[in-house]
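Saturday, quiet lab. Running sequence design on the structure tokens for the scaffold JK sent over.
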């Protein structure tokens, strides 16, 4: 029940983030025993680079506490969508925080929103949607792969957020989102190989009062075909963009102060010799400056985000 609301202490069954470092985090379930591959019930011992953790010992511990491992220590944190994205089991490629922040903002997801998502995948984006639309909204998420849909449904149940999400196993490109969702959605998000095939179904799912649309596509050709379909159906404010997160490097640099007095003197061999001798004897003055520069490595391409608005009262056949 870790994702439902803020908590102070770890309870049995909670999903807990075991934080070792920025690049080393693990999501574990706070249960004292687990069943191994042989079907035997054994104590839940979690192995890390800093030794083992007897999971039973963290039940009842306050979130944020430092816990001992057999060869070191770690912190136990309550999961957030951001931490879950970094530790979740990958069933598919996932969307990461820079793109997700733009998606949530552009789709205007807020408490009470009804959002339709396809496909569910590993559930990374789904957790962000659920945090934004709780406690009065609802997420309808679709995946064409039955096993992935079942895994996502079970995951939402274990995280305590199943009341706010309905998981469907369906090929939305051919079958749509279902008549029960026609005119019900405030926003539709697509992460599909051929999003243009699902655009007419997204058009039907959006409310008569209008709504927002987004599609995530790795290739620009997918985005172009999607835009063509959006234009045909009367969407406006269509834009396709790419989010590249870049962190500037800010640090203090020490630089020598250049003495330009010698430029005022006429240039002769004697002047040059005297200037060089003076420079060799005089300690160079330095100053410290706070500088900002681009990182040596720039972020790579993830995908193109295509956004559009469906105006109100567009006739739907």
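Result came back. Writing it out in full:
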């Amino acid at each position: 029940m870790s994702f439902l609301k803020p908590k102070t202490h770890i309870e049995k069954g909670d999903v807990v983030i075991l934080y070792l470092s920025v690049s080393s985090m693990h999501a574990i379930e706070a249960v004292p025993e687990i069943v191994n591959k042989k079907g035997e019930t054994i104590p839940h011992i979690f192995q890390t680079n800093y030794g083992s953790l007897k999971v039973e010992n963290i039940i009842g511990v306050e979130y944020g506490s430092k816990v001992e491992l057999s060869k070191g220590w770690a912190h136990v944190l309550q999961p957030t969508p951001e931490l879950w994205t970094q530790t979740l089991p990958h069933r598919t490629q996932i969307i990461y925080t820079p793109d997700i922040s733009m998606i949530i903002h552009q789709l205007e997801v807020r408490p009470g929103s009804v959002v339709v998502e396809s496909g569910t995948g590993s559930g990374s984006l789904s957790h962000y949607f659920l945090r934004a639309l709780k406690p009065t909204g609802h997420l309808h998420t679709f995946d064409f792969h039955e096993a992935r849909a079942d895994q996502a449904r079970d995951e939402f149940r274990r995280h305590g957020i199943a009341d706010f999400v309905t998981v469907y196993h369906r090929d939305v490109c051919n079958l749509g989102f279902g008549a029960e969702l026609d005119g019900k959605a405030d926003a539709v998000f697509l992460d599909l190989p051929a999003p243009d095939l699902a655009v007419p179904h997204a058009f039907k799912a959006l409310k008569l009062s209008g709504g927002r649309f987004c599609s995530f596509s790795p290739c620009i050709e997918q985005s172009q075909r999607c835009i063509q379909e959006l234009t045909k159906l009367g969407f406006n404010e269509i834009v396709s963009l790419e989010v590249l997160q870049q962190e500037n490097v800010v640090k203090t640099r020490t630089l020598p102060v250049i003495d330009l007095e010698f430029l005022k003197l006429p240039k002769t061999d004697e002047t040059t010799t005297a200037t060089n001798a003076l420079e060799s004897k005089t300690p160079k003055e330095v100053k410290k400056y706070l500088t900002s520069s681009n990182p040596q490595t720039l972020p790579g391409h993830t995908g193109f985000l295509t956004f559009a608005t469906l105006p109100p009262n567009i006739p739907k056949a």
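Notes for JK: The helical segments are 81-87, 97-106, 124-133, 146-158, 172-175, 195-205, 220-232, 269-281. The radius of gyration is 28 Å. Ask whether to fix the surface positions before the next round.
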